[in-house]
């Protein structure tokens, strides 16, 4: 059984205020999902040929606009520095899109990956400042998608059937870290209330810019165990920031607002809205507790030369064990191997929600291979 939990919301079949006539939406099924639309931060972004180097697939906050041709000719870059993990991340493993070293056209993937995440993003400048002037917050990621991304995809000859598209959101890692010392939290506001406000803002943007475009299937991911990063494990229990309680509060706020999002549309009957929450906190804590089950030997440290040339192929030249044996890639990011571990369980989770008996393998990008062992990350089934 998967260690993950699905948000226990009655997934009613819903309609919007302006339903399309005679269009009956089918329930979520991962096997029939053709597009993954991703939003998030450095845990989720992939490098694009039209993106800001080391930050995005396309554009930045100072260059949000683009013509359809720019998106539709954009390619996923796969190399040692094209993600924050030193290799493919969870959305690439999940879709099988962009796994091969070099360039991948998302349109050629069985499950197309269109990634609007931005490294270093917080949810909104309403609550927290940008890391850089060019950082694209979650709110602006969804605005960029609504104003330019969705129209571009809709103009192509491979226009997505929005009923077969999954919107994936993994947000909050920077928000909880940036606010952990309370200095950026409004005076008198508690952590739980602050996190609730963050999630309200997130869901308002999602509803305004993505739901309003007709997307109805949503996957949300809880925080990784940030209380167990290499920096935190060196601290006394009372000095860890963020601590496990804070991570729990943040996840509670996500669940609360996901329930509210569902409830706002749950009285309709003809347009299928499905909200799924993948509990990465629980699963990744299990990986940290039982690393040997996943081929991991080091859960408390990382290779200090993680960003040096050839460290992925010859870590011994820097005095490091193989990167695939580490849980952590650096002080705050997980290795590509850990992302593969996560994606494999998430894949099982998603296919279970779609009524499949077994998680899917053999999709384009890793056809004929078991798991993702060809890359040296993940493991064989």
TrEMBL record:
<dbReference type="GO" id="GO:0016788">
    <property type="term" value="F:hydrolase activity, acting on ester bonds"/>
</dbReference>
<protein>
    <recommendedName>
        <fullName>SGNH hydrolase-type esterase domain-containing protein</fullName>
    </recommendedName>
</protein>
<dbReference type="InterPro" id="IPR051058">
    <property type="entry name" value="GDSL_Est/Lipase"/>
</dbReference>
<dbReference type="InterPro" id="IPR001087">
    <property type="entry name" value="GDSL"/>
</dbReference>
<keyword id="KW-0378">Hydrolase</keyword>
<keyword id="KW-0732">Signal</keyword>
<dbReference type="Pfam" id="PF00657">
    <property type="entry name" value="Lipase_GDSL"/>
</dbReference>
<feature type="signal peptide">
    <location>
        <begin position="1"/>
        <end position="17"/>
    </location>
</feature>
<dbReference type="InterPro" id="IPR036514">
    <property type="entry name" value="SGNH_hydro_sf"/>
</dbReference>
């Amino acid at each position: 059984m998967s260690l993950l939990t699905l948000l226990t919301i009655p997934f009613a079949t819903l309609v919007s205020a302006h339903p399309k006539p005679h269009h009956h939406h089918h329930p979520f099924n991962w096997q029939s999902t053709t597009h993954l639309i991703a939003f998030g931060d450095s845990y989720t972004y992939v490098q694009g040929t039209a993106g800001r180097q080391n930050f995005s697939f396309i554009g930045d906050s100072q260059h949000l606009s683009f013509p359809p041709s720019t998106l539709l000719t954009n390619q996923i870059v796969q190399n040692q520095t094209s993600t924050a993990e030193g290799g493919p991340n969870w959305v690439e493993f999940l879709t099988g899109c962009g796994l091969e070293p070099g360039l991948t056209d998302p349109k050629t993937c069985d499950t197309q990956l269109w990634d609007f995440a931005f490294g270093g993003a917080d949810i909104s400048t309403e609550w927290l400042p940008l890391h850089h002037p060019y950082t694209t917050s979650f709110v602006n990621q969804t605005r960029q998608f609504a104003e330019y991304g969705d129209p571009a995809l809709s103009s192509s000859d491979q226009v997505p059937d929005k009923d077969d598209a999954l919107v994936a959101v993994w947000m909050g890692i920077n928000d909880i870290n940036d606010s952990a010392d309370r200095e950026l939290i409004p005076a008198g506001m508690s952590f739980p209330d602050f996190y609730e406000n963050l999630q309200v803002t997130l869901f308002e943007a999602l509803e305004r810019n993505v739901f309003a475009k007709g997307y109805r299937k949503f996957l949300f991911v809880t925080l990784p165990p940030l209380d167990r990063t290499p920096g935190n494990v060196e601290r006394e229990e009372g000095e860890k920031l963020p601590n496990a309680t804070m991570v729990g509060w943040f996840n509670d706020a996500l669940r609360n607002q996901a329930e509210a999002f569902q409830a706002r549309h749950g009285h309709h009957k003809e347009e299928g809205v499905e909200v799924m929450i993948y509990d990465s906190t629980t699963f990744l804590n299990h990986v940290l507790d039982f690393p040997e089950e996943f081929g991991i030997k080091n859960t408390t440290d990382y290779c200090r030369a993680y960003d040096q040339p050839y460290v992925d192929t010859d870590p011994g030249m820097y005095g490091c064990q193989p990167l695939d044996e580490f849980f952590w890639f650096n002080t705050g990011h997980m290795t590509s191997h850990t992302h593969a571990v996560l994606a494999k369980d998430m894949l099982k989770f998603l296919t279970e929600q779609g009524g499949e008996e077994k998680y899917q393998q053999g999709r384009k990008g890793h056809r004929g291979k078991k798991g993702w062992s060809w890359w040296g990350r993940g493991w064989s089934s």
